[in-house]
Design a protein that fits this description.
alpha/beta; Nucleotidyltransferase, domain 5; 5-stranded mixed β-sheet; 12 helices; globular; binds adenosine-5'-triphosphate; binds magnesium ion
Length: 409
């Protein structure tokens, strides 16, 4: 395989920047040949607030991945997230153009183009236009109308939009790190693509990516995205609760949470076996795992409650018989899956990236779900399996940004 056939996914997260180099083979396996991770210093709640810090982390992560793969990364597929992301559903309608009334790819494209004509405030931009279903002469539920006969073609789409400035600050950081952008991909969509089984996506399932600064929710049904939301809560909140609760520095709180934390105080040991350094370096204190879990539990419950609230308010709660798949680094919190199953009263499982070969010791971790999903999603876009999912951001934000950038230097 030629080097430029490899796909590079760049997940610029609140706690870490990950660059993954890989390809998807004919059997749908993702082969990873390069991994780079750098601590992220320039983001808050999934949004770039310090460009220089972000540029450094992006450069570090891609250099690491380049060294491992043995060639220089030139261009990347960038994951976009953050609370500025929202969506709207839109319908496009066209008359079938061919005389013999056979629906062609150009009719599908025109229908999608019609759907993307929506009223957007000037500070927002379309990230993806995702067709959910087609309707041919009033008959709904059509997955692929090409080749069918009909007079009137309609498409129901899910349009994901984001704040132009937030997307531009992210892209600006990528360009300043010396990289080209192939396209942007919505992170919750990528995470879903990495951890969900096709039958779950068909039946209806919610994937919840709990990171450091954000919790990304994506609901799929009938194989398509029904709902997306990015909530401003994540593992950082748990860490800061632990820091405040145990009066220990944040770096210690983070370590203690990861090594000894649990999402539920039920069954946690009551002996004060943990040695906690106190702030100001003034000594140590012995704390029980139960005391630690009692600090974590309410925040874990709050994150789950906010997630459910958004799913319920969006009206898609009845569409997830497949239950909830928890992913992202914070899904590693001991006992979180069980707590979620109890609180949400639906089947809950841990989402680890599926079908990965190479570097599995690193990548087969929920924290890498979005990164692996970027490679899968990009491969599908390139392979034409998702003909309309290029979303047009290439011809809008990125193009505009490239022009602006060219003028600037
Ligand atoms: N074993 C563990 N127990 C509890 N929390 C953990 C564990 N491992 C990782 N985490 C938490 O996961 C979070 C990092 O997750 P992830 O790498 O998915 O975030 P991110 O992608 O950088 O951030 P975001 O998606 O919010 O922008 C941190 O808050 C970290 O403390
Ligand atoms: Mg993330």
């Amino acid at each position: 395989m030629a080097r430029n056939d490899y796909i590079v996914g760049l997940d610029v997260g609140t706690s870490k920047v990950t660059a993954l180099i890989g390809e998807v083979d004919a059997h749908d396996k993702v082969h990873i040949i390069g991994v780079g991770t750098a601590p992220s210093r320039g983001l808050r709640k999934g949004v770039v607030v310090d460009i220089d810090g972000t540029v450094k982390a992006i450069a570090e992560a891609t250099e690491q991945a380049s060294r491992m793969a043995g060639f220089r990364v030139k261009s990347v597929w960038v994951g976009v997230g953050g609370c500025h992301i929202s969506f709207t559903n839109s319908r496009g309608v066209v008359a079938v153009s061919r005389e013999d009334k056979e629906i062609g790819p150009e009719d599908v494209q025109r229908a999608v183009d019609a759907a993307r004509v929506i009223n957007l405030p000037p500070d927002r931009e379309i990230v993806h236009v995702l067709p959910r279903e087609f309707i041919v002469d009033g008959y709904d539920g059509v997955k692929d109308p090409v080749g069918m006969l009909g007079m009137r073609l309609e498409v129901e789409t899910h349009i994901v939009t984001g704040a132009i400035t937030s997307i531009q600050n992210l892209l600006r950081s990528v360009y300043k790190a010396g990289l080209e952008v192939e396209d942007v991909i919505l992170l919750p969509l990528a995470a879903g693509r990495a951890v969900l089984m096709p039958d779950e996506m068909e039946l209806g399932v919610a994937v919840v990516d709990i990171g450091a600064g954000t919790t990304d929710v994506a609901v799929f049904q009938g194989g398509s995205l029904m709902f997306t939301a990015v909530l401003p809560v994540g593992g950082n909140h748990i860490t800061s609760d632990v820091g405040v609760g145990l009066r220990t520095p944040l770096s210690q709180a983070e370590r203690i949470k990861i090594e000894h934390g649990a999402a539920s105080a039920d069954g946690a040991a009551e002996e004060p076996s943990l040695d906690i350094p106190t702030v100001g370096g003034q000594g140590h204190r012995a704390v029980s795992p139960k005391e630690l879990a009692l600090i974590i539990e309410p925040r874990a419950q709050e994150i789950l409650a906010m997630t459910v609230d958004r799913i319920v308010r969006s009206g898609v709660a009845g569409n997830i018989p497949g239950g909830v798949v928890l992913t992202g680094g914070s899904a590693n919190l001991q006992g979180l899956v069980d707590l979620a199953a109890r609180e949400l009263n639906v089947p809950v499982r841990l989402g680890t990236p599926q079908g990965v070969q190479g570097m599995t010791d690193v990548v087969e971790n929920p924290a890498y779900a979005a990164g692996v999903g970027l490679i899968r999603f990009a491969a599908e876009s390139l392979g034409g399996q998702r003909p309309m999912q290029e979303g047009g951001i290439m011809d809008s934000v990125i193009e505009r940004f490239r022009r602006w950038f060219a003028d600037f230097f």
